[in-house]
Amino acid sequence: MRCPKCANLEDKVIDSRSARSGAVIRRRRVCLGCGHRFTTYEEIIRARLRVVKSDGRHEDLSREKLIKGIERACQKRPVSVETIESVVDAIIDDLERDYEREVPSQAIGQKVMDQLEQLDEVAYVRFASVYRRFKDVNQFMSAIQGLVGKDGVLPGA
To answer: Alpha helix locations (H) across 49-157?
Structure first.
């Protein structure tokens, strides 16, 4: 591994740990030339999933795009970055298990909705309003009423 400070190719691994639920190995290294410490990540490279959009276009599945969408829905909510990353990891694992090469964008949206419904009701409604393209307040109210339990109280409240 090339040192990011001096470009020396000689280094020593000083610590290895599992990350992202065992999907990645995090390694701390020290350059034998300059002594600079740096971190590398090692993971299995799988065939890239392609997203089939509703208009027929194709694009690569983007972990960053999923994170940004969920972060936007969880903005100003008590949801940590680590929780969002684990949700995204779970979604991607499900998609890689369920689909070989191409995944419909609707399947991704539904998996995000399922995860957010369990995680945070406000984030769920925010995401649903964009994903389902609510046209008026009645559609918005229907989504909220779907969350309301039999006793008239939101789950987790």
So the answer is: 63-73, 81-98, 105-119, 121-131, 137-147
- Residue 23: how many CB atoms within 10 A of its CB? 12
**Which tokens in the block code for residue 101?**
């090469």
Q: Where are the domains of the chain?
A: 11-43, 50-147
Between the alpha carbon of residue 2 and those of residues 19, 27, 32, 34, the distances in Å are 22, 14, 11, 12
Contacting residues for 10 by C-beta, under 8 A, at least 6 apart: 31, 32, 33
Measured in degrees and rounded to the nearest 5, phi and psi for residue 59 equal: -150, 160
* Pairing of the two strands 11-19 and 37-43: unpaired
Q: Which strand ranges, in their side-by-side order, compose the sheet holding 58-60?
A: 58-60, 50-52, 102-104
Amino acid found at 48: R
- pLDDT digit of tens for each residue in the chain (157 aa)? 899 999 999 999 999 999 877 778 999 999 999 999 999 999 877 668 999 998 999 999 999 999 999 999 999 999 999 999 999 999 998 998 899 899 999 999 999 989 998 898 889 888 887 776 666 666 666 766 666 654 454 445 4
